[in-house]
Amino acid sequence: MQNMMLAALTLGISSCPLTGPLTAEKDIINKYPPPQKYELSGLITFGYADAESKNPGRKRPEQFII
Q1: CA 54 – CA 5 distance, rounded (Å)
Q2: Using only C-alpha atoms, what is the Rg of the chain?
Q3: Using alpha carbons only, what angle is made at residue 25 by residues 12 and 16, rounded to the nearest 5 degrees?
Q4: Range among 11-15, 17-21, 34-38 rated most confident
Q5: What average pLDDT does range 45-49 have in this prediction?
Q6: Mean of the pLDDT values across residues 39-58?
């Protein structure tokens, strides 16, 4: 999944990993059955973003280490 997302980024395509759909795994498998030796572990959405996202930056360790 990571390699697919990195490749998409180099092509200017945004992506988002989704693990929530695993709760609907049976419905997804019924609609899009994978080959027998594979199983669903997550989904990735791909598309073009409306705007460029901004990196929030890193927090200083003092902000969360007590």
Answers
A1: 18
A2: 17
A3: 15
A4: 11-15
A5: 93
A6: 84
| Global pTM value | 0.60
Hey, which residues does 4 pair with through a beta bridge? none
Comparison of pLDDT for 4 and 39, the residue scoring more: 4
Tokens 């992506």 locate to: 15
**17/8 Cα distance (integer angstroms):** 12
- Opening angle at CA 1, ends 56 and 48, nearest 5: 60
**33-48: b (≥16 Cβ within 10 Å) or e:** eeeeeeeeeeeeeeee
Please name the helix (run of DSSP H) or strand (run of DSSP E) that holds residue 45, with its range, or none.
Answer: strand 43-47
What does DSSP assign to residue 43?
E
Locate the domains of the chain by residue range. 2-52
Place of tokens 């927090």: 59
